[in-house]
Amino acid sequence: MSARTGILYLVSGPSGSGKTTLCRRLSDEGEASYAISCTTRPPRPGETDGLDYFFLSVDAFKDKIANGDFLEYAEVHGNFYGTLVSEVINKLEQGTDVVLDIDVQGAAQVRASNHPIIKNSLVDIFIMPPSEEELLKRLSGRGTDSQEVIATRMKNSLEEMEHWPKYSFRIVSGTHEEDYTYFKALLHGERLRISRHHDTPA
């Protein structure tokens, strides 16, 4: 009988790439457990604490940094974001696949982790918008941000996109269904990888 360690499905991509939608759908369909991030930014309309993010004060976030509670954390757009170790390690040890939606700074910290289970379970994917024009269209389409905010996000997104060669896989975004088909197929392929199964020889 084989015992499988969970897969840490780390997903990055600029705002507007659709990465969060992909991660949420994978979780909603029961394919993986979504690792909820902590943030110091205020909730957007419709967001719920403990479901979309753990919303923390700056002081509370810094206390968790000091306690070593984060697998990774970063300051993005003037706010702190981070992933709790407790949201990831226990699930992986139990054989549960975990999907992690984080930026390129956080991804670099996870790759640098010396924790054996993180090193052995990590699969990193970059979701790439098909073009700059489409990215701008998606960022503008939200209808909730000012032109100044959109311009800042566009600049940051283009900088993030330069990091895609550091990832093991890249999905160039098309339609939502096309993206999800590739996204889920990649996870299923990783589950079949021999090195993820630890059989004891007879």
TrEMBL record:
Q: Where does ATP bind?
A: 13-20
User: Which PROSITE patterns would you find in this protein's record?
Assistant: GUANYLATE_KINASE_1, GUANYLATE_KINASE_2
Q: Report the subcellular localization.
A: Cytoplasm
Mainly localized where? cytoplasm
Which keywords has UniProt assigned to this entry?
Answer: ATP-binding, Cytoplasm, Kinase, Nucleotide-binding, Transferase
Residue spans making up a coiled coil are: none
Class of this enzyme: transferase
Is Nucleotidyltransferase given among the entry's keywords?
A: no
Q: Name one GO molecular function term.
A: GMP kinase activity
Domain (Guanylate kinase-like) ranges? 6-188
- SUPFAM superfamilies according to UniProt: P-loop containing nucleoside triphosphate hydrolases (SSF52540)
Q: What is its EC number?
A: 2.7.4.8
**Catalyzed reactions per annotation:** GMP + ATP = GDP + ADP
Q: Which family does it belong to?
A: Belongs to the guanylate kinase family.
Briefly state the protein's biological role: Essential for recycling GMP and indirectly, cGMP.
Task: Name the chain's protein.
Answer: Guanylate kinase
Q: Which organism is it from?
A: Rubritalea tangerina
